[in-house]
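Lay summary

Proteins are chains of building blocks that fold into shapes. Our project writes down both the chain and a compact code for its shape. Here are two examples, one after the other.
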Amino acid sequence: MATYKIDIQEEEIKNNYPEVLKILLKDRTTRKNIKWATNDYRDKGLLFDAKSEIQISLITGPYYKLIQPRSVKLKESQINRTKEKAEVFTPSWVCNEQNNLIDEAWFNRKNIFNISLDKKWKTNYNKIFFSEDKTWKQYIDDVRLEITCGEAPYLTSRYDTVTGDSIRIQDRIGLLDRKLRIVNENTETEEDWYKWVKRAYQSIYAYEYQGDNLLIARENLFYTFIENKKFKFNKNPSVNELSEIALIISWNIWQMDGVTYDNPMDAQEVHYCQLTLFDNIEAEEYKKDEKQLCKIKDWRANKSITFKSLVEKS
């Protein structure tokens, strides 16, 4: 039975895929790095302040075990995050049941990928059947969104969110996992496989406030790609494939305040001005910088758009 590394070390990514780690830390809206957006690491120094960017040097070297999945953290740390930030990770079996409802509506039938049991599931290993009016390619392109995603358990279930036990690729239940299973079942050549895997990644989105969770989510999606390439072809992805998938992830899994639709911890600097006798007495004494609305990528149209515009349109 295959087992997968749960606590992904940034040191390992830096050594094996140095350019990828830079990409996974990028914020596509600000064109800087994602922010910590939590003071959990503030005791390490000013560079770990909530408003500071996450730099490679702060999560590798002597800090290589600083960022950890929730299931690996000490119970005390889990409790504190729940109390202070309402951080509660949904058990994998609950994610599965909710994802099953999405597929039930799409396929118009039940138990497509698995059958839900008592806090677990039984996988259907038969090839997924598609009717004439809905094709597997349409399923891949159908857009999915996970809000306040944490470590993105609804998108990929590399491990059980409660126990931390790794989950075999065949038994994974995330929205991306399901798309990748469909690609694995319906493609033969590496070229065709990669084309549709890339489209699968382009069709899933998620946002998160806290930078450490966001990085873990991005890493989980990145390693899901590597694991599926090995599962399908028993080989590692190319450098170009790794960079391209990482780029898609950095656009589609983004850092955002879900209430205001802008970048967390965005400073609203106050600019004071000296009034003169000629100034209108009703003139503003200061002006606040406008916050940047978060941008995502519409891959089919090949353009960036604000997430807020999508919400307003819907």
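And here is the second example, written the same way.
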Amino acid sequence: MSLSINVKNSLLLISEKVIILGMSFLTSVLMARIAGPEVFGQYAYITSFTSLFIPLCAMGLNNISTKYFVKYPKHSHYVFLSALFLRSIGALICIVLGGISAYLLGIKDEQLTYILLLLVLQSFSLFYLVEFFFLAKKQVSYTLKIRLAIIVCTSTAKIFIIMNGANLFSLLFVHGFEFVAIGLSYLTLYYLQGNQVKGQISKAPSKQSVASLFHQGKWLLLSGIAAVLYLKIDQVMLASFHGTEEVAYYAAAAKLSEFWYVFPLLIANAFNPKLIQLKQQSADLYQTFLLKILSFMVASAILISLITYAVASPLINLIYGDEYQISANILSIHIFATLFIFQRAILSKWLIIESYYKFSLMSHGAGAISNILLNLLLIPTYGGIGAAWATLLSYMIASFLSLAFTRKTREFMRLMITAMIKWPKYLHSFHIINKESDR
């Protein structure tokens, strides 16, 4: 039996990410071991700080654009230009707001220069919109090849820099240049493929279309900002209370835990067009498919968490060395957040399909606020271990408990509870529904 296009795309994307994450992990380990906690901690702190503003480069339009690319293929280029215009404005705001925030927080001159440089370079991620265009067309191999080639090259450059003195500026510049290279390559690919002319409605974006996209994306933009806050604010706050070396110990553990976060996102992205189609075709098939994907996510998260918990101490010692042994305690707590993060990837798609954008903001906002408050409570006394508990609890609040807020989301909460209790039953029968609709 041949695999459906969704499964093929998922396997292709996962294979690519295994290579990329392997390279990224190798550079982190070498940086931690060779450069030491000080450089590793500064690098983690600066990249975490700038990442707080990167959602502005997307303006909450990734999944909304995918939805329109799937539903209205003849208007794809029109939607593309409208979304790109909004993302360009967001990228400019990202640079300005990030720079002002760094200055007001009293960040030192050298670090301020690094942050401004990285903010400018990462703004080129606005062109990552192209990736979602090809994803909607189920042609992931186009952007995959570009992304893989560039990231392998930049990772190799980072390794070379680390082995030859680990200059912090050079490492940050290469990190930022990756955004530039991928973004411009994506844009070139889009136009070389002729997607602006092939069967497309040819007209310039109107104020109405741009305003409409902004109106739909504003809740997802705010939720994206909230999401990155409770993903990265812990490292920024750790640096404020305990210095960048504590950030290094936490980042070492978080790197091992967050290694897994990309996989549910890839699976959710690959199956998003399928979910959109099933929503239009059959409510029963749609609900059943959601339950099966959630069960797969739960089973994966439980397996990963238990294995990591059991081997946390020898794993940290093997990878980072005795100097980072405190990271083992952080990892054994942090890893259990995967149970909620894996299911959140499907929840995010469900919210888009159901056009329930406001709840995305509500849930991420609840997670961000709870994470900041918990960090303020726990980090001063417990350092990285406190930050790990804050991360776990805030993800549980944002991705599960917050679903009790409204009647509509309680329906999805019921699916999550069912998946967490009966995942062996549904995982056993996991398969692709109505393969013919994939064609």
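What can we say about the second shape? Residues 339 and 392 are 9 Å apart (CA to CA).
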